[in-house]
Amino acid sequence: MSALPAKPGLRHSVSESNGNNHQLSATAQRERLVSNVIRQEGRSLRSETDCKTTWDESDTCRRLRDRAWDVARWKEELETCAQKVDEEMEALTLSKEQTEHALAATAVPLEVGSECLTLRDGRRGYELAADPVDEELKREVELIERMQQVLQQHVDKAFEHLWYGNVLQEARHQLTADLQNKMDALDIDMSCLSLTIKSPQISLKTNPTRVPSSTPQEWVQFSQYNVARAQEAMQVSQLMREDLSLTRTQLQNELNAQRRATEFALRKRTHHEEQARDELEWQIGNTEDEMAEMERDIHGLDADLQGKMASLKLAHTRLENRTNRPGMDLCRDEVQHGLVNEVHQLEATIVALKQKLSEAQHSMQKMKRHHSHMLQDLSGKQEALSLEQRSMNTRSRLAPPTCSEKAPVLLVPLTNSSGRSNLQLLAQ
């Protein structure tokens, strides 16, 4: 029988086989130990990370709620401040409109004052005097012109503060923008607070840990600055409204006082002119009566003068005829002496009558001229009184100005992305 052939390859000894078995067992035991440690550490890590994640999520939710409360608080403060700014803008607009109405109301008094001055310039003669009425009317016109200038300056100042001065309008714009940002931020934070690990909107983002542009301190300071600026603008507006109201009241009181002074002077002047007219009419009436008496006396003097001339002619004729007596009969008898005395007496009487008649006629002419002058003056006084009455009627158009009712202001809502807002802002 032949021998079996030997198999090629290295053969290990029993000790090597046992050592290998021992090594395998030791390695398995060591790997199990390492695995056990890793498993325990994994379980501990899972437990620790689960607690940490749960706590972090809870802390984040708390921080979100706190942040949302801060944003909501500032949102309410901004809303309140914006509402006050709107109310102040509306109040200042109303005050400006009242001032504009007061300014427009000065047009009629100015027109009336100027018309009264023009009417009174139509007086004639001595009635065209620089009396107290002229002074009061000119003072009234100057006051109205100054009043118009002051009111226009206040209207321009209020208009500039409202719109073109970028004071209230800019403050309102900053509040509106800040408030809109607060609304959007509050919506985002509330949306983040509502997210969970089961929300379908969650996903991994690119570089989500980038640092925001502002700090909480800067965030608070920004809103504080906007509120403080709006409050300062409102304080300026309140002072401006008080100034507008005070100016309107003072100027209106001055105008009313001047109006009463002018009307008093006009009534007083009218009364004096009526007295002067009545006195002149009485003088004219008495003068006319005296002229009638003088006319009768002139006729009487002229008739007496004619009668004395006839008597003088008679005496002259008698004397002349008696010169024709013949011889010794042409003597200076008592008749001669009587006739001569009569002639002298008649001549003296005629001279006296002629002088008195001349004086009467001269006085009559003077009275006629003065009567004509008084009639002209009476006509001027009547015309002046007519002008004064027209001035009084013209001034009856004056009436104290009344403030119109407050005009409605158009409002538009300012809403956030979800439509949740109760803020009303003035429409631009």
UniProtKB/TrEMBL annotation:
Residues 1-29 are annotated as: Disordered. Residues 71-102, 241-304, 343-370 form a coiled coil. GO terms for cellular component: axoneme; microtubule cytoskeleton; nucleus. Keywords: Cell projection, Cilium, Coiled coil, Cytoplasm, Flagellum. The keyword Cytoplasm applies. GO terms for biological process: cilium assembly; cilium movement involved in cell motility. It is found in: Cytoplasm, Cytoskeleton, Cilium axoneme. It comes from the Eukaryota. Residues 15-28 have a biased composition (Polar residues). Its main location: cytoplasm. Pfam families: Tektin. InterPro entries: Tektin-like (IPR048256), Tektins (IPR000435). Belongs to the tektin family. This is Tektin. The lineage of its organism: Eukaryota, Metazoa, Chordata, Craniata, Vertebrata.
